[in-house]
## 1
Amino acid sequence: MTQKRSLAKRTWRFIWRTTLCLFLTSLAYIIICRWVMPPITITQLSDSFSHGLQRDYISWNQLPYNIKLAAIASEDQTFPDHGGFDWDAIERSMKPRKKGKKTKIPLGGGASTITQQTAKNVFLWQAGGFTRYIRKVPELYFTKMIEWIWGKKRILEVYLNVIEMGPGVFGVEAAARKYFGKPAAKLSRAEAAMIIASLPNPKKFLPKPMSRRVAWRYPQILKQMQNIEDDEDLQQLLKSK
């Protein structure tokens, strides 16, 4: 009996120490990334073996207004207001699909905010099937932590620098130079929308040569950009220095 108690005590001590170590390490990295761009992400590392790695991190002030607006219009229109999660979108995504309506999006999918996508791309891994549910627990943690420590401006800045925008292409600066032969600062409104339109599957949906999906989607993004542009909270975020 004493041996069992001793083993349980050692096991609990090991779990507690490991958890504390992981928490402190992750917290330190989150704080560092508040000012320093992630040196590498799991997605960038895995893609580099098959597609190479094209990226060029740029600062908030170098990111064009149009690309910031396009990302929010397409990916997360409640971004300036939520605390990391869009609970209304999550609730809608959990409702059963209508009969006869085909979709590849699982229940609970398609409701990720920009904050969640940033947490996933910076700290975690891309996942499919059952592993996507394993990832949800640390995703919840990192999502709330970067909301508290980074704030909206930094989250959007990192998102637009680390998100995959083509095979081996990460961030809007690399995407702008690859697809349009210019720096991101010189992207037109339509070009910004084309780049953002590739995000659901950037290895398949390309701005150039333009895939059918991008051709269909980017005019919708342009319309949404116009619809939300006058929002006061959005303008306060986008025009901050």
## 2
Amino acid sequence: MIQKIEVNQNYQITQTEIKSIINNFDSINQYIAKGTRNSIKKTTLESGKIATIKSFKIPNIINKFVYRFFRKSKAQRSYEYAENLINSGFKTPYPIAFVENKSVLSFLDSYYFCELVEADLTYRELVEIPTWENREEILKQFTKFTFDLHEAGIEFLDHSPGNTLIKQVGENQYEFYLVDLNRMNFHDSMNFEQRMKNFSRLSPYKEMVEIMAKEYAKLYQKPEQETIDKMWFYTEEFQHKFQLKQARKKKLKALIGKK
């Protein structure tokens, strides 16, 4: 096996410690998220700081070849995009390292290490709990955060409810941290359509979309109703595709169950 370990030189950790954690990854039982595709665990480092490790599953047979020779791994992209965000003045859990395991002809698996951020909530709570304290103000500040990303030409393709951590840092003052970074585009500039489409995954509720659209319209100096209509158009488009996908999955599961 060929193992590549890249460590952030600004962080107090060694390749030896990283390698030890990966070798013992299966025995770490502190899960942040446990999925069929990827898992996230946390562990205490020798420095006393807590790190999260995202394990990316072994890709399918085609991607084993693609990731081995032609494309950066999800772990490497997560690490590099985190550096890009921080260098651009945005927040994300501090990148520590990434690890790739390969064979001569195939890609195996990869891991991304970053510092744990103790958040007060994610965007998901704003969707699921309409009575969340100061919800409208948080949505407005989140919109400003997203506007600033767009102004910097950053298109976060997984801009969805679970991928923004939110910390309250003062009275009516919030900070936003992006996570799950392996799918991002960096543009010289973003047009109105790209900006509005980037909100499509966040909430199925029109009242939330209207709060964000009104705030964005002020920041972008665009007519309010035009901004609401366009943001809602892309939200409905995404929700329609999502529901069709879920229905297909349900149908397939039922067919498999009959066999």
## 3
Amino acid sequence: MYAEERQQEILRRARTAGRVDVVTLAAELDVTTETIRRDLTALERAGVLRRVHGGAIPVERLGFEPALAARDEVMTAEKERIAKAALAELPEDGSVIIDAGTTTGRLVQVLPADRELTVVVNSPPLATALAARANLHVIVLGGRLRGKTLATVDDWALRPLEHLNVDVAFMGTNGCSLERGLTTPDPAEAAIKRAMVRAAQRSVLLADHTKFSNTYLATFAELGEIDVVVSDAGLDPALAADVAAAGPEVIRA
């Protein structure tokens, strides 16, 4: 088992059980405790686990939200595949919303140069990347800038969304579950995401497989409100079928 595969298995176990133990992991994964400690350190630096005495706890159990830079270093290959697959949902022309986030940020990077689109964003970094594209009309939603996610929130971002009608909203999420839908730790950011979904004729969720079965504080959409879910091949086929049964088409890139 490669280090990345082992670390993903450790993360899966932590999220399933609520915590993991160094000694138990070393025995069950047939590696040394030093190797497990290095894995836990790498996962903590990535912002998905928090080290505790003798083991680690998934950050969602602590109500902790990793910063954007930490999340951007996790599941990079999967996010790139998801972004490329999501291009199939891009209109030939018209208007789109691109939600703040690391996977949606990959979508910005691969947008085709020949499309003339109006793109609405609530992320200054994404707006800066898009502004270099002469064929795009970029609308930036104002408001309070959240340091954790570099997303704009509150009234100055919400009010314009009430009057917008876009073709497709490309959404990110912190958690996705059958019972609670799409969730995020911050209620102000959830309100913006909710308004984005309502402003769009179609909504496309970009979420790698680690986001599934996680639940955070604020729900911003039910699965039935999403038209397409684009994830990666790591999403369990049975869970993908359950998600599809709730309404959206599911694509495993």
## 4
Amino acid sequence: MFTHAAIANLNGLEMMVYNYVIKNRDKVMYMTIRELADATGVSTTTVLRFCRKLNCDGYSEFRVRFKLYLEQNDEQLVNFGPSEIISFFKSTNNEEFDNLIDQAVNIICSSERIIFVGAGTSGALAKYGARFFSNVGKFSNHIDDPYFPVTNDMAKNALAIVLSVSGETEEILRFASQFSLHNCKVFSITSHENSSLAKLADFNISWHIPLTRVGGVYDITTQIPVIYILETIGRKLAKKMT
């Protein structure tokens, strides 16, 4: 039901509905369209657009299909963890997501140097990504210092793989802009393709997991999708390079 193609087609307001539905699946089953709209802070028209983008004729059909979806996946949800993680993995199990991974591999193969960029938790994953890609034979560096200078020599024939949960971090956007100004391709991995970083990048893969913050400041959003995407690309890259 929640395929990668369907979720990727949602706009910002519709993503708010999706995030609420995933986190409150037991409540949604008994909510009217007006109650869901009020709970998510959007209009009933937005909820209807959300339903139609999931290939439902209306809200009534959405509730029926959503109930069936939950019944079919209840055992998986109990055994493997939070619903949003399961939803992510189910959304990647299709040809469209495989094609995105293949495109990423081709872009990486055509680049002489790979530079991973990230700050905070994403900085730690940038270091992990650089090491993982180096392990499979594509030497990579990482930058986790938001004030590291970007030069012509660094950006020449390089690909910057920029990691950001929100895709709105000011320092990361500055990094991406500087790489672009130096004619360096930018490949972003973000939580949603409507973010500023995704729009600035030459290529983007998004993972559609609700952002979670402590006290509205500290980001504790799961990074499992990012690791999965990096490792999937790395393994396909290894096969292509052998």
